[in-house]
Each structure stands twice: as C-alpha cells, then as structure tokens.
Amino acid sequence: MIDFEQLGWEVSTVGELDHRRLKAPHVKLRSATPGANGDVVYCVDLRINRPNAGQYLSSTELHSVEHFLLEGFQRYLPKNFLSIGIMGCQTGFYLVLLNEGNARKICEVYKNILTDMLSAREVPYANIEQCGNYQNHNLELAQNVARRVLEAQSNWLQVV
Ligand SMILES: [Zn+2]
Fold first, then answer.
1. How far from chain centre, in Å, is Cα 69?
2. Which residues are within 5 Å of ligand 1 (an ion), measured at CB?
3. Taken in order 54, 59, 64, 68, is the CA torsion positive or negative?
C-alpha cells in the first residue's frame, strides 16, 4: 500500500475531486499506480487557475510554460520524469513521474523550475526542429504565470 500521508499529501484530496471545491494554484496527487515489480507511477496535477472561474491560460501561456516544465523536470528529475501535458480546460498541467511521489520534493523542484524561469532569456525548445508550433511562444507571458504561481507557494498543498 502507498502511504499518501507519509508522502506529504492530504489523504482526503488524493484522487478525483469536485472541481467546484478546488483552490488554485495547487499541487495535487491524482493517482499512484504500482507496477508488478514495485515501481510506482505518480500522476500529479499542477493547477494554475481555479476551474470555471472565468480565467484561463491562453494557448501561448500554456505552450511556453509547458516547454519550461518539460525542460525543468527533465533536468531536475532525470530518473523520474515521464511526461508533462497541458489540461484541455486551460487551467493547469498534468505531471507524470516514476518512483517520485513525495509532495515536498515535487514542490521543491516545481519551485526551482518556476524560479529559473524568471531569469530565463528564452523559452526552451522554441524552434522549428523541436516544436510543432514554434512561433506560438512568449517568454514574458510565461514569466508572469511563474511569478504568480510562486507568490502562492505557501498554499500549493491546500487543494480545497
Ligand atoms: Zn511546443
């Protein structure tokens, strides 16, 4: 059994929740799936905006922040990072990690990535060889998102 409390998550907020209850920004464990040999895949929500509150990330904001998260999680957690994806509802990102489900550790890495963004000179992989819509990027918009999420850092684990 996976001990969510031991990993630093509030047990009652793990899994699917009524989206009307969600605060944001937050970091939330969506699922933890053990394999036959004891490895565990962790799915984590990096929610940026409160659902259905009339404020959604633009396609450019989502895209540039996604590139930074992709680059950052690969760099900080090379053995654990599996994937990052945007939420279709434009309020956040899905993070998938192998064998790393510690809330404090994930928040620490997330904080480091967002902090790195503030001094970045360019959006990673924003070129025609590595991106499918390479002109749809904006460093300043992505940095504004990062700044806003960092300001709420003390409440990231307060999901509801
Ligand atoms: Zn891209």
1. 7
2. 131
3. positive
Question: How many A from CA of 160 to the centre of ligand 1?
Answer: 31
- From first to last of its 160 residues, what are the pLDDT tens digits of the chain? 899 999 999 999 999 999 999 999 999 999 999 999 999 999 999 999 999 999 999 999 999 999 999 999 999 999 999 999 999 999 999 999 999 999 999 999 999 999 999 999 999 999 999 999 999 999 999 999 999 999 999 999 999 9
Nearest to 106 by CA among 60, 21, 50, 44: 44
Cα of 136 from ligand 1 centre, angstroms: 8
CA 63 to centroid of ligand 1, rounded, Å:
6
